TrEMBL record:
Keyword Ion transport appears in the UniProt entry: no
Keywords: ATP-binding, Cell membrane, Membrane, Nucleotide-binding, Transport
Domain ABC transporter: 27-256
Manganese keyword on record: no
InterPro entries: AAA+_ATPase, ABC_transporter-like_ATP-bd, ABC_transporter-like_CS, ABC_transporter_ATP-bind, P-loop_NTPase
Name the record gives this protein: ABC transporter ATP-binding protein
CDD domains (alphabetical): ABC_NrtD_SsuB_transporters
Protein's organism: Aromatoleum evansii (Azoarcus evansii)
TM region(s), chain numbering: none
Family listed: Belongs to the ABC transporter superfamily.
Amino acid sequence: MSDYSIQHKLAQAAAAGEAGAAAAPKIRIRNLAKIFETRRGRFAALDDVSLDIPAGSFFMIVGPSGCGKTTLLRILGGLETETHGSVEIAHSGSERPLNSMVFQGDSLFPWMTVWQNAAYGLTMRGRPRAEIEEVVGHYLSRIGLTRFKDAYPHQLSGGMRQRVSIARAFANDPEILLMDEPFSALDEQNKLLLQGELLRIWDETRKTVLFITHSVDEAVTLGDRILVMSAHPGKVKTVIDVPFGRPRQVLELRARPEYGALVYNIWEELRDEVRRARAQDEEGVRS
Ligand SMILES: Nc1ncnc2c1ncn2[C@@H]1O[C@H](COP(=O)(O)OP(=O)(O)OP(=O)(O)O)[C@@H](O)[C@H]1O
C-alpha cells in the first residue's frame, strides 16, 4: 500500500458502546489532502484539513464554491480516496452502515414507491420485515408522507422527494449522515419547513450529521458547529460554535438578535474567501 492510499480505519468503539465513546470524536480527520490529476496537471482540492467532529453533533460546512466541500464529504462517504492524511470514523460495532448520503438532486429510485425507497437500506441489509415496517412507518409519519407511501417519485413535489430522501437516510440508521446541500433546490417556504422537520427528526436520534450549505442562515439555524473553509485549496479557515440550545424553532431562532450577529460574523469570515474564489475563477486557477 502506498503512502497515498486510503486509510479508512473503522475504530471499533469500546465495549461500552456509543454512549461510552461519547467524549471521543465520532470523526477524526488528520492532515487530509486531495489532489486530482487533471489534463492541466495536479490540482489540490483539499490541503491539510484536520478536524475532530464530536459524536451526535450537527456539523455544518460552508465555503466558497469549488473549495472542496463535496470532495471532503465524498471522502468521508468512501466515494473518493484521500491523497494524504487519514479519516477515522468510530463505529459502534453493530451492523449499522457507516454512512447515508442525501444530495441536492433527486436520488430516489423512480421505479420504487415512497415506502420502497424509504425501506431500501434496511431491505438491502435483510432486516426482518416487522422491523422495516415499524422503522419506515415511523419516519414516513415524522415527515408527513404516510398518505403518499404508495406514490412514485414523479407523483411528488421536489420538497416531498427530499423528505423521502431524509426518511430513507434516517431509517437506514447509519453511523453518520452526510448531507450535500439537500435543500438548495427548494423554494424558501419549503426550505424552512424541511429545516424544521429535519431538526425534529434529528432531535430524536442525535446522529452525527455533516451538512454542506451555501447559506449562512441555514448553517446557523441547523448547526452546533460551523466549519468555514478557505478558497482553493480547501483548508480549515475557522470552526465556529453555535451557542443556541435544542430543540430549536426555526422562525423563533431567526428573530433573535444574537442570530443576526452570528450570521454577520460568519459572513465576514466567508466574504474574503468568496472574493478569493472569484479572483481564482477569473485567473483560471481552478480546474
Ligand atoms: N474528479 C475531479 N477531477 C478533477 N477536479 C475535480 C474533481 N472533482 C472535483 N474537482 C475540483 O476540485 C475542486 C473542489 O470541488 P468540490 O466539488 O469539492 O467543491 P465544492 O466546494 O463542493 O463546490 P460547490 O460549492 O460549487 O459545490 C473544484 O475546483 C473542482 O473542479
